[in-house]
Amino acid sequence: MEFNPSNQLEELLVKAANDPVVRNDFYKLILESDIFLVQPPNSKPSYGSRIAGEQESISIQSMEINGNVYLPFFSSFTALQRAIREESDYVSFNARTFFEMTKGQKLLLNPNNDCGKEFTVEEIASLLDGSIFNQDSAREVQSGTEIMIGQPANYPKALVEVLKNYLTKFKSVKSAYLAHFFDPSYDEKPHTLIAIEDYGDWDAVISGLDLCIRNIEIPDPPVDFVKIDSSESYFSDYFKNNCEPFYRRGTD
After folding, report:
1. Predicted local distance difference test score (pLDDT) of residue 41
2. Radius of gyration over alpha carbons of the chain, in Å?
3. Where in the chain is the domain with CATH 3.40.1350.90?
4. How high is the pLDDT of residue 2?
5. Start-end of H helices in 169-244
6. What is the DSSP annotation of 129-166?
7. If we measure between CA atoms, which residue out of 38, 126, 124 comes closest to residue 74?
8. 8-133: CATH homologous superfamily?
């Protein structure tokens, strides 16, 4: 049966399956959304059972796929109805609460639907502590450090296309550049460096980048990001004087 989204969460779920840029928005929204669970008839607390409140106990019916055990949940009542074959009780509550209750379990969103998603134990943990939204910690290149910078032999086309799409969300971003970078005092090997010319909320720009590029094949990983602007710096001077941007915002 064709999957027709019935709410904003499902619209983002469909888009995120093919567009890495949307995944950050999907993760943020699901934490705020209500989800649905099938309740087995006359069920007793067993595998997957959790206390939902002081006076309430729920039983979450597990399912096995290819030897892996999952706790299923649904993004809407419509998605739940598509999945079940017989009349069943159900319960709805906040997804973050559900993730807290089921920590340590693999979860499966919308089984028996044409659009769903598996959540690993590590993925749920990073959603709950917020680390999934965080870019790796920043570092400074110290004055006087001998570094090597140039253009890559293997151009990361897939990475560039994803970043072009992502950066259009931020009006404060004017341009973006790419280079091959090596700092012998810190790096084990040369890797990809992206310079973003930004005049706004840099934290907002950087917060979704790691998630956006997480599953992209990159010839020279990892990827570092550096902010440049109108002030003088080694990176600003290098990129603006020696490189063509792979992204430039048009006139709004």
Report:
1. 65
2. 23
3. 8-133
4. 67
5. 202-207, 209-213, 234-242
6. HSGGGPPPPP----TT---EEE--SS--HHHHHHHHHH
7. 38
8. Uncharacterised protein PF11572, DUF3234 (3.40.1350.90)
Question: 160: which 2 tokens?
Answer: 């560039």
Host H or E run for residue 63: strand 63-65
The dihedral of CA 43, 46, 52, 56: what is its sign?
positive
- Which one-letter amino acid corresponds to residue 52? A
Predicted local confidence at residue 1, as pLDDT: 55
Asked whether the beta carbons of 39 and 89 are under 8 A apart, the reply is yes
Rounded to the nearest 5°, which phi and psi values hold at 244?
-90, 135
Q: pLDDT by residue (tens digit) across 12-40?
A: 999 998 888 888 899 999 999 999 998 77
Q: Report residue 48's pLDDT band, with 50, 70 and 90 as the boundaries.
A: very low
> In whole angstroms, what is the distance from residue 84 CA to residue 153 CA?
53
Length of the chain: 252
In this prediction, residue 8 carries a pLDDT of: 96
What average pLDDT does range 118-139 have in this prediction? 82
Report DSSP letters for 80-120, one per residue: HHHH-SS--EEEEEEHHHHHHHTTTS-EEESTTSSS-EEE-
Q: How large is the average pLDDT for residues 228-239?
A: 88
* pTM for the model: 0.67
> Start-end ranges of CATH 3.30.300 in the chain?
148-248
Domain boundaries 148-248, corresponding CATH code: 3.30.300
